Amino acid sequence: MNAMYYLKIKIPNTIYRIAQFLEILVSLLVIAAIILSFGTILSQLGVMASHPSDTEGLRSFLSTAFTVVIGIEFLKMLSRHNMSSAVEVLLFAIARQMVIEHTTPMENLIMVISIAVLFIIRKYLFIPGLDDKQTLTVPRTDEPLSTEDEFSGSTRHE
């Protein structure tokens, strides 16, 4: 019996705690990378100010800026654990690829279709109440509630 307890309860709980710790560690590393990237963005902005006609400098700046935004959205996804964050990260990643990279018309069409599919998922297939823990809890009121137990048919007063 004790061995089954460890196999079914103790070991999975330990693995879950380790995974949570590693997730926090990755989040801290992402925060550090984002902070360091702000320095790169500022230096690229200075280069662009001194050479305003340099289109390659603009492309490099936009690439870095989009990467930082995707990193911030990824950090939100790690901290929130909901579908809307995941969809936002995918939207930004596809948009970055479209704006920064020189792609073929077929690749552009595929990316536009991908963005449209993500918007459709977000609009019609996404149920925000499933991710919002506050909407899943029943608010407490001062007056007693009487509910009928579905299984026994008895009335319960809280």
Automatic annotation (TrEMBL):
The keyword Heme does not apply. It holds the Pfam family PsiE. Its main location: membrane. Keywords: Cell membrane, Membrane, Transmembrane, Transmembrane helix. Residues 139-158 are annotated as: Disordered. It is found in: Cell membrane. The chain crosses the membrane at residues 21-45, 57-75, 106-125. This is Transporter. It comes from Intestinimonas butyriciproducens.
